[in-house]
Amino acid sequence: MNVGIMYAGSNIDELTAYCRKIGVSHVCLSTASTPRLDKDGVPDVESLRGLNERLAKAHLTLAGMIISGSPSREGWLGLPEAQGEIARLRRVIASLGEADVGTALLFVISERPWTPDRRAEAKHWRRYVASYRRVIEQAEASKVRLANHAGYYAHEWVRGARGLNELLRAVPSSYNGVNYCTGFYMAGDDPYEAIELFRGKIFLVHLRDFKRRGELFDETPLGTGEIDFPRVLKLLKTAGYDGVLLPEHFGPAKPGEDLQAQAVQYVQKLLD
User: CA-to-CA distance for 27 and 7, rounded, in angstroms?
Assistant: First the structure.
């Protein structure tokens, strides 16, 4: 396993200097970081290849890309006013595949359609799955593994480990996987059991820490909250995960304090 960082900017020189400063060689970028995008925000293939080449020359590994602009609830439901959203997502995945980007993080977070009718809710879910199946078909054709990131709150459709597991079961595919996040804890899940649940399907990992405050959670620097990170890393290793670890959501920083660098150092010490 390697420690990496997420970067949403487009200044690769700035990114390179920062990675050298904090001792990181793996990065996860947003598709919006691509120098050339079309009018729908779809990355240009040659531009993506050039970006990857620049990273390689700087001795940085592109561990994956975060898909910017996930479909809305209406898009997942295939409603007329959002017909183009799934098609746009398929085009993004196709571009990533042509540029040999093998892993993409997709936020499958959208508001659940409210209805007191269970039959209507089941119908909504079937439409969601139908749209998602089209996405996975493109991922398979393009050989891009989708690391799906769930939501944490009751009003969100794909919520926590249970919601992600339903999505994996509904559309079985070797390209349909998860972005494991210790934030599963916020959805009421056991973050340690979730690693075993998704054994073999974890494509990316987010590490974040927090302390419970009533029904809410306060973000804290890694290692200062309620998540047992030595246990998490041990379980990930046992489950066969050998990818990148991406610390995030570090809590409020004091002036001049780089909590991301501290998080990287903390995780690297655990790995060592």
Answer: 7
